[in-house]
Each structure stands twice: as structure tokens, then as C-alpha cells.
């Protein structure tokens, strides 16, 4: 594995889910760019349990594109899990990640690599300086997300930087060493603190197919980002409790004044509003606590976030130290384990 890493200058990780329509256009633009860098490379396409012909097309492309490597997950595990599978199996000295929809231009990858080599950087972010092709709703929600994340995670997180980036081998190994199960790389990579730079570009429209990040997944990403990188929501629950306490004191004073004035019946409205307010605050606090407890529960279970069913670089499925599924397979296949399963 060490010699393979030294020979491969660049790995390009591409998570894919139902991208059969976008795949031909992606290959037509990406392959000439990578062939032109003048160094050995691999393209690691991670099929995230696609239900269309994505896997079949990737299998056909391998016959005409020897640098293409296909990794198939056994089920749809999500974009970040597919990206994790690709990062953990990439062997290049530098690893770039890009989506298959061509909203991020592959032509920027050589520029990222040149910048990293010139300035000795471990991370190069692809930063969107023009999102005019996105809908107004998408631009506003993205703006709120990045503003909130920079407030929580710190200003080392570049604004408008998604999952289009270049990582050095040192940065990839640092990521692989982290125990996080629900990784959000938009926050995790800046948190590492490695020397970084930026390459700016205009975000294009999706080349084909439908978006794989509807509103529900965007909300889930925001929740994972907040609960995974900050305890601020728990402090928010505390402040909501303090606010509700003082609101109750105010209502208590109002009730006493109304009683002294002989106007206790009109106080029904304030009492009703007070009960609703306290109930809402309690539910919010319980919900926030539930999110964090859920993350603790997931961490304690230690279930892998993805299962690799096939890797074209090693169809037999050899053991990989960084792959929890392969580790489990080895333990089950060991003679001692077999002896335990054999009836006496």
C-alpha cells in the first residue's frame, strides 16, 4: 500500500447516487483535465447504493478508463458517508473531492493541486464566489447556514465552501484517525487547523438529473453540523429556561396586581399565554437534549456508517485497517472465531 501511495499523485473522490444521467458529461469533462496533469492519478467513484444504472455505467467505463476505480456501498448511506468511504480508501498523495453533478468545475482541480504544491498547503478549498445559478431560496438558506456555522465553529471555516476541496495525505490521515461517526467535512476539515488556501469559482447549474440534497437533507445537515461541533444549543436551552423564569416572575407580578385590583377574570389570557410559553420552552429544551443524547447513543453503538460491498481495486475484498466492516469480517473468519461457532 505504501508504494502505491507514493506512485499515485492524485486521487479524486466522487460520491454518486443515481447519477446515470450526469455520468457521461462528468467523464467527458473530468478525464481530459486529469490526463493533462502529467502525473499518475486515480478516480474513486463511490456508488452510494444507486437504484438506477449508475453502477452498470461505472462498470462499463472501467474497461476504457483504467484510472477509474469503483467502490460500491451495500446500501444508500448518505453523501457524507460515501465521501468518508472514498477518503478512507484513496491512496493518492493528494485527495480531491467533487460531486458528480458538475456544479463544481473539475477544471479547478489542477489549479488546486498547483496552489497546494506552490505554497506547501495541506488543504485547498473550492469557494463559490457566484451562486447566481441557484434559486433565491437556496442562496438565502445557504447564507444562513454558513453564517451560523462560522459563528459556532469559528471564522477558520471559509464562507461558501462545500465539499469541493483538495487534501494532502497528512490531512487525510488526520481525518481517518478521528473517531467521529457522523462526520460533516465542511466543519471537520477547517477544525483540523492545517495550512489552507482557496480557489474561487462560479457555481454552475446541475448538468443533469435531480438534486440529491432536498430541503429535508439540508435541515439534517444543519442539525448534524450544529450538534456535532458545538454545545451552543445546550446553552441556548439554559438561556431559554432563564428567560422563561423571568417571564414567569413578570406574570406573577401581573397576577398579584390584577388580584389586588379585583380583575382576576381578565387574567385568563395572560395565564393561557404563559402556559403555552412554558410548554414550548420545555419542549425545545427536551428536543435539544434528545439530539445530543441521540449522538451519544450512536457513538456508543459504534456501528459503521457504511458497508463496502465491492472495490474494483481489490474485488476479493482484502482487509483494510481503516474499514470497520473488513475488521469484523476478519474476526469472524479467524480460526478462533470459527472454533467458537462450531458446536462442541
Automatic annotation (TrEMBL):
Localisation: Membrane
Chief subcellular location: membrane
Transmembrane domains' residue ranges: 239-262, 268-293
Residue ranges occupied by any Glycosyltransferase 2-like domain in the UniProt entry: 11-174
Membrane topology per record: Multi-pass membrane protein
Family membership: Belongs to the glycosyltransferase 2 family.
Stated name of the protein: Glycosyltransferase family 2 protein
Species the sequence originates in: Kitasatospora kazusensis
Lineage start: Bacteria, Bacillati, Actinomycetota, Actinomycetes, Kitasatosporales
Amino acid at each position: 500500500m505504501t508504494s502505491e501511495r507514493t506512485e499515485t499523485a492524485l486521487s479524486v473522490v466522487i460520491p454518486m447516487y443515481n447519477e446515470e444521467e450526469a455520468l457521461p458529461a462528468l467523464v467527458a469533462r473530468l478525464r481530459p483535465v486529469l490526463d493533462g496533469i502529467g502525473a499518475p492519478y486515480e478516480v474513486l467513484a463511490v456508488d452510494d447504493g444507486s437504484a438506477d444504472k449508475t453502477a452498470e455505467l461505472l462498470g462499463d467505463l472501467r474497461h476504457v478508463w483504467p484510472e477509474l476505480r469503483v467502490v460500491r456501498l451495500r446500501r444508500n448511506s448518505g453523501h457524507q458517508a460515501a465521501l468518508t468511504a472514498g477518503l478512507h480508501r484513496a491512496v493518492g498523495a493528494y485527495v480531491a473531492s467533487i460531486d458528480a453533478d458538475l456544479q463544481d468545475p473539475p477544471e479547478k482541480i489542477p489549479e488546486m493541486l498547483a496552489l497546494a504544491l506552490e505554497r506547501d498547503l495541506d488543504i485547498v478549498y473550492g469557494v463559490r464566489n457566484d451562486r447566481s445559478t441557484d434559486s433565491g431560496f437556496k442562496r438565502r438558506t445557504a447564507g444562513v447556514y454558513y453564517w451560523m456555522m462560522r459563528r459556532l465553529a469559528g471564522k477558520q471555516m471559509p464562507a461558501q465552501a462545500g465539499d469541493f476541496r483538495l487534501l494532502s495525505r497528512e490531512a487525510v490521515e488526520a481525518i481517518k484517525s478521528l473517531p467521529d461517526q457522523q462526520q460533516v467535512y465542511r466543519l471537520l476539515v477547517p477544525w483540523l487547523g492545517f495550512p489552507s488556501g482557496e480557489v474561487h469559482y462560479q457555481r454552475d447549474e446541475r448538468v443533469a438529473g435531480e438534486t440529491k440534497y432536498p430541503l429535508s437533507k439540508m435541515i439534517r445537515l444543519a442539525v448534524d453540523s450544529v450538534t456535532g461541533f458545538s454545545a451552543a444549543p445546550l446553552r441556548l436551552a439554559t438561556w431559554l429556561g432563564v428567560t422563561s423564569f423571568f417571564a414567569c416572575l413578570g406574570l406573577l407580578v401581573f397576577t398579584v396586581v390584577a388580584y389586588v385590583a379585583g380583575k382576576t377574570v381578565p387574567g385568563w389570557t395572560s395565564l393561557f399565554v404563559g402556559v403555552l410559553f412554558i410548554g414550548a420552552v420545555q419542549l425545545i429544551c427536551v428536543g435539544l437534549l434528545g439530539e445530543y443524547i441521540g449522538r451519544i447513543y450512536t457513538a456508543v453503538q459504534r456501528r459503521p456508517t457504511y458497508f463496502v460491498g465491492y472495490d474494483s481495486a481489490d474485488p476479493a475484498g482484502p482487509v483494510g485497517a481503516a474499514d470497520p466492516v473488513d475488521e469484523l469480517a476478519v474476526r469472524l473468519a479467524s480460526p478462533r472465531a470459527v472454533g467458537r461457532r462450531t458446536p462442541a
